[in-house]
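Consider this:
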Amino acid sequence: MAFARAAFWRHDKSESDDEALRRKFWRKLRGVVARIPFAEDLLAAYYCAFDRATPLHVKATLVGAIAYFVLPVDAIPDVLPVIGFTDDAAVLAAALRLMASHVTPEHRTVAREKLTAMLDSARG
C-alpha cells in the first residue's frame, strides 16, 4: 500500500507496514478487549481489511480506522475511563458504514469466534 509508506506508525524498516500494524493491533486489542463494546466490529473490520478478496479502496478505509485505534495519540486519549474509546468507535463506525457491503458474514463469524476465545482466555 503506497499510503502506508508515509504513515508514522512504521518504525522498524525490516518489518512491513502490514506486519507492524497487525502486531500493534493485536497487542492493543488484548489489553482492552474487555473494556470496549465495539470489539466484535473492530475484529470484523480487521478480518475484512486483510482479506485478499477485499478491494483496495475498502482495505485503505478499514486500515485507516484500525490504525486510528492502534495509534497512541488521538482526539480523546484512550486512558480516560468510559469516553476514551468513543472517538475510536466513531471512526470505526463511519468506516464500517461506508464499507458495510464488503464485511462478509464470514468476517463477522471469525470475529465473533476470536472475541469469544480472547474473552475466555482473559477470564481464566
The two ends are 39 Å apart (CA to CA). Residues 1-12 have pLDDT under 50 and may be disordered.
